[in-house]
């Protein structure tokens, strides 16, 4: 009777107690590492790489493992019509919308074991800690493992109602189209509207992820607070020269598209490097035509990618490159043309309050942190359209990702999960209100 | 009887008379142009290009046409075991070895009507003029149309005994291997030794050809006296960078193989341009790996070709490029490796006396001329190994070649044939002795 009374009193002062209690709760590095290792078995190949591409047999087996862990953490597991795995834990206040957190477990072909996985295992760790300690929250919690992130943010795109019909027909590395793949994992691509969450229907979204650059590792900082996911713009750049015999055409009588492409590539690199800021610009692909050692290239086509957190800055970088290209093209009598490719994604800034909440969580846990952009795309960028969104980065050794060599220490993973736990509880405690 | 006596006297003073007579003999521009046009029908396609690739039906038809012209010019026509067409005219002195002249009639795919053709039609014009005027020579004359020049100097290579077994197995644009092609045109690849001419067995070789650069056209000069066919060296150049995520890797943390390749390409162009001389260096082919717009290239492979008439100069150009590559590679932490490809052909200088004879012939005809290297390869380069060799260039408008747009005027063709005639008669008259 006395214990029951104490319990009731405890429930009344719950929000305060929860905060107090979590000062003592932190994620278990050993458990997280053991689970990362167990998950890595699904899709491991002889070379040491993990190829758990979305919709493959390995992905199906990995998803089954994750759903088991979710159930172990006391979650009610379902698969939405987009194939997203959602483990739900009810809250004490039925009027409140859920706090959602998670990431993805599919990999690129020949990838590693941390990209995405840390965020899912970390989210389950949070649920499991709450479950083990018997801590209830006011908000429902939804732990999510998104479908086919590497193939184009398929699951989160469906969740915000922006997965197009044409995206469903794209062939994936699994040998299935996205449509077929969604069926294969238990979704229903003909009823995607059931997977859509309306703006305001989710109280907050948080994604824990490895930093795919090497900044945290190099600066020896525990936690990255993501300011947003950078925007991306792509161009096909064509240089028109004049193809001619490489033996008979004197050096001063050439309109060599390759030499112009070389000068342009150096200019792109110089402009992106010298301009203050964190913008990047890359020439990743190049082709010289006709492409024979004994023919002066008459045409070169190369790719230009520009990324930044600020759309205006991206435009500024492009305009500087364009102006320099015009100058180089004129000087060498080899015109340079830019054709933008329709794959642009705008910058997706995270919520300012969410950044503050994550920063406070890290401080309270005695962890160092810094603000930083995410140069890579994440499901979180979709979620910014429907919910206040935050992102927590943990170090990845040397910044390696999409590679069997990617590695994050057990302690760093646990630090991330502990910050995630504190962030979720702070939101639940009203920090966003 | 009187006429017969005059004829006998004429024969005795022949060399003097021949020289005197040829001052009045010149090639017929209209006939040459008409024949070039007739030949162009074999292999003409709808786009206006000529694809008379060696061993094709068009080549077989073109060869038949050429053999007909040779017979019309009083030549005895045979096909040697390498498939070379040889039209022979006996000389008055059986102790003398033949003077050989000619070129080829096969084309590149999508080529034009002058490369090679002008040299064969011009050689037949010389034979026809001698035939029509009843002019005999001391030396036998052999007018040659070489087999498969564009595929790798097949016919002339066989003639100097250097056509390898592996070259016979190469697949050609005709769909036949070189071996099958030689059979198809009436040769016998199993008895190539019968096509071989020993050093000293040919008194001289002369090739008339269009200049494949634009120098004669631009400088408005009638005749190019070829100093030699430039040597060629090829390298595969590999730049080792570090492939990484183009979004997450800051500009100052990249080992971008593409940026290094760009700096190297500019350096190659600058070195070849600024060094005094006529050397050329070309990057005609480039590949960035993995080759995605959103991945910093971890490796770039590009082709380097260097050509010059002087082997030492070629080596000097390479060493300057190599030193600059070492500097650039070190500065950017992206090593640059050079692997030479085994396709090198050494420079093939023409005979000094032959140059003088051609120069005199042009002067006597009132034609302007200049010395120049041939940047392109020709059958003449093989012939330098077995005979005193000379080459006569005529202008090609804008220097275009290997293109439907290549064009040489009827007058320029006739000038070339007239110089060829005077050159052959001068050699026959003892100018080389």
Report on the architecture of this protein.
The structure is a homodimer of 433-residue chains. Chain A has 433 residues and is an alpha+beta fold. Chain A has 2 domains: 2-230 and 347-428, 3-Layer(aba) Sandwich (Aminopeptidase); 231-345, 2-Layer Sandwich (Alpha-Beta Plaits), CATH 3.30.70. Helix content of chain A is 38%, strand content 21%. The first copy, chain A, has 14 helices and 16 strands. Chain A has helices at residues 2-12, 14-22, 29-40, 57-72, 117-133, 154-159, 165-168, 178-184, 215-219, 257-274, 311-331, 352-364, 379-383, 410-428, and strands spanning 76-79, 85-89, 99-104, 141-146, 204-210, 223-229, 231-240, 244-245, 280-282, 286-289, 295-296, 299-308, 336-345, 348-349, 369-374, 389-394. In chain A, strands 1, 2, 3, 4, 5, 6, 14, 15 and 16 form a 9-stranded mixed β-sheet that branches. In chain A, strands 7, 9, 10, 12 and 13 form a 5-stranded antiparallel β-sheet that branches. A two-stranded antiparallel sheet of chain A has the order 8-11. In chain A, strand 3, helix 5 and strand 4 form a beta-alpha-beta unit. Chain A is elongated and about 80 Å long. Residues 8-22 of chain A have low confidence and may be disordered. At the A-B interface, strand 8, helix 10, strand 9, strand 10 and strand 11 of A face strand 8, helix 10, strand 9, strand 10 and strand 11 of B.
Describe how the helices and strands are arranged.
The structure is a homodimer of 433-residue chains.
Chain A (H helix, E strand, L loop, with lengths): L1 H11 L1 H9 L6 H12 L16 H16 L3 E4 L5 E5 L9 E6 L12 H17 L7 E6 L7 H6 L5 H4 L9 H7 L19 E7 L4 H5 L3 E7 L1 E10 L3 E2 L11 H18 L5 E3 L3 E4 L5 E2 L2 E10 L2 H21 L4 E10 L2 E2 L2 H13 L4 E6 L4 H5 L5 E6 L15 H19 L5
Parallel strand pairs in A: 3-4, 3-5, 5-16, 6-15
Antiparallel strand pairs in A: 1-2, 2-4, 6-14, 6-16, 7-12, 7-13, 8-11, 9-12, 10-12
């Amino acid at each position: 009777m006395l214990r029951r009374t104490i319990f009731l009193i405890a429930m009344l002062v719950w929000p305060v107690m929860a905060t107090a209690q979590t000062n003592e709760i932190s994620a278990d590095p050993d458990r997280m590492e053991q689970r990362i290792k167990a998950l890595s078995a699904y899709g491991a190949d002889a070379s040491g790489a993990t190829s758990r591409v979305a919709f493959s047999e390995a992905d199906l087996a990995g998803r089954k493992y994750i759903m088991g862990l979710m159930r172990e953490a006391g979650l009610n597991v379902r698969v939405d019509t987009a194939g997203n795995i959602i483990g739900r834990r009810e809250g004490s206040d039925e009027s409140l919308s859920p706090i959602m957190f998670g990431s993805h477990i599919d990999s690129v072909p020949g990838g590693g074991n941390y990209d995405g996985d840390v965020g899912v295992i970390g989210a389950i760790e949070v649920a499991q800690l709450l479950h083990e300690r018997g801590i209830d929250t006011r908000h429902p919690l939804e732990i999510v493992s998104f479908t086919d992130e590497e193939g184009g943010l398929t699951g989160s795109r469906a969740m915000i109602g922006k997965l197009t019909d044409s995206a469903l027909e794209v062939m994936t590395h699994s040998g299935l189209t996205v449509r077929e793949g969604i069926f294969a994992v238990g979704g229903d691509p003909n009823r995607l509207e059931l997977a859509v969450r309306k703006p305001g229907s989710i109280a907050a979204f948080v994604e824990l992820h490895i930093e795919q650059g090497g900044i945290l590792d190099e600066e020896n900082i525990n936690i990255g607070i993501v300011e947003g996911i950078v925007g991306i713009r792509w161009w096909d750049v064509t240089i028109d020269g004049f193809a001619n015999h490489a033996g008979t055409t004197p050096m001063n009588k050439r309109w060599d598209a390759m030499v112009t492409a070389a000068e342009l590539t150096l200019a792109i690199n110089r402009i992106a490097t010298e301009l203050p800021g964190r913008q990047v610009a890359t020439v990743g692909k190049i082709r010289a035509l006709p492409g024979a050692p004994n023919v002066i290239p008459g045409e070169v086509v190369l790719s230009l990618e520009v990324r930044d957190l600020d759309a205006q800055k991206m435009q500024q970088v492009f305009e500087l490159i364009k102006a320099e290209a015009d100058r180089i093209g004129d000087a060498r009598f080899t015109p340079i043309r830019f054709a933008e490719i329709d794959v642009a994604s705008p910058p997706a800034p995270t919520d300012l309050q969410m950044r503050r909440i994550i920063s406070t969580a890290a401080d309270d846990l005695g962890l160092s942190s810094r603000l930083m952009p995410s140069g890579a795309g994440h499901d979180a960028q979709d979620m910014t359209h429907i919910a206040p969104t935050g992102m927590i980065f943990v170090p990845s050794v040397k910044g390696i990702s999409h590679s069997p060599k990617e590695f994050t220490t057990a302690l760093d993973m646990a630090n991330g999960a502990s910050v995630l736990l504190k962030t979720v509880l702070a939101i639940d405690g009203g920090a966003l209100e």
